[in-house]
Amino acid sequence: MLDKLSNALKKATDKIANAIFLDKNLVDSIVKDLQRALIEADVNVQLVLDLSNKIKKAALDERIKGIEKKEHIIKLLHNELLTILGEEKQIKLGKRNVFLMLGLYGAGKTTTISKLALYYSKRGKKVCAVGLDVHRPAASEQLKQLCDKLNIPAFIDSKEKDPLKIWKKYEKETSKYNLVLVDTAGRDALNKDLITEIKSISRIVDPTETFLVMPADIGQAAKTQAETFKEAVKITGVIITRMDSTAKAGGALTACAEIKVPVVFIGTGEKPVDLEHFNPNSFLSRLLGMGDLESLIEKVKSAADPKKLEETQKRLEEGKLNLEDFIEQAKGMGDIGSIDKIMSMIPGLGKIKVPESAKTDLDKLKRWDYIKQSMTEEEKNDPELLEKQTARIQRIAKGSGTTTSEIRMMLKQYKMIQEMVKSQSDMAEGKIDQKTLMKMAKKLGGKKMKRGF
């Protein structure tokens, strides 16, 4: 997300922090780089000029000396960027909640509903969706298909052309859910017909939150769109989609802050887990290369199956990890995102360039899954059978469309992880001796351990 802006902010803070003297030429150079990056990210020009003037003023302030001045400018830059990103909106769910989703054609309302459904269902909420888009062909079927994949109930009626009748039809059933996500129709522009329709839906649905869904690539046009919807139906927040596919997302983010409409979620990819609660502080921290552990933890919650996680945790504590557990855990990491996306969220690792070889590891996970699907239950629970009977490996390779060397590499990594898990369990119970610890360290490539460490 916003790679150019992120790199420019990192360079600017590094230049300020490492400068021996903050002279006028250096400050002008830093400000120009920032201006270019912010304007390329589609941030309003007036906001960019205001920020530039404040940095220059602080740099020329003779009352602040040496290190204090550098710290002051970095803090000023951080605070000003936070201001233009807006304030965080915390969503507190009660016993019964209804989210009304609004937006123009192509904004990504239906896909976002499926992401929200997954996000809240993983947090223990009973979630359903209702399709009230009666204008777009196959809109209700799309909603149903997306929700079915996530085991989320979706109430639709593709034959009915009155959205109010559809809501009334399913009102009793939806009352059993903690959170009801309501999909509505869009238009090419916010015209009178759309305003009339969403106002009537809003009255009968009585939403606890009304969210406007907008794509990040509309840039500063987001300001006009959010303002118009705000006047028409009093939206309570904005969800910005396609944050991963544009360099101009800064325009949409800062435009919402300008008109005091908070951004509540951002879509960061195509997968159902690619939805993040928008925390300006955490977002800026990631842009500056300082990581965002909070969002990473949230992603892990969205990617993991709570029941499977609990079962796996129990086996881990007992020192038992079968091959299926190993592959499922690895796949879970793949669902969270690419290696460089994960690293950008870990403090201190955001500036590290990920080798191309490491990035391809996530592709291997898919192939491991194919391997697992071609194995019998007996083989999953006792992979040592494969080492004893090599014909099994050849059969699995043929059935999964992989190679025998790929299977052996997977088994090797599984065995290493399994030994670590068992040793961790034995260590907790005091069953592991120092000789075994030294053997482990050697196997894992560690330095030779001395006695009495």
Shape: flat
- What helical percentage do the residues reach? 55-70%
Q: How far is the first residue's CA from the last residue's CA?
A: 45 Å
Counted by DSSP, the helix tally is 22
CATH overall fold name of the largest domain = Rossmann fold
**CATH class designation of the largest domain:** Alpha Beta
Q: What is the total domain count?
A: 3
- Any idea what the CATH superfamily of the largest domain is called? P-loop containing nucleotide triphosphate hydrolases
Return Rg in Å.
26 Å
Binned strand content: 5-15%
pLDDT under 50 segments (min length 5)? Answer: 346-350, 354-360, 443-453
Describe this entry's structure for a reader:
The chain is α/β, with parallel strands linked by helices and 453 residues long. It folds into three domains: 3-85, Up-down Bundle (Four Helix Bundle (Hemerythrin (Met), subunit A)), CATH 1.20.120; 97-299, Rossmann fold, CATH 3.40.50.300; 304-443, Orthogonal Bundle (434 Repressor (Amino-terminal Domain)). It contains 22 helices and eight strands. Strands 3-2-4-1-5-6-7-8 form an eight-stranded mixed sheet, sandwiched between helices. Helix 9 (221-233) links the parallel strand 5 (209-215) and strand 6. Helix 5 packs parallel to helix 6 (139-149). The two termini are 45 Å apart. The model is unreliable at 346-350, 354-360 and 443-453 (pLDDT under 50).
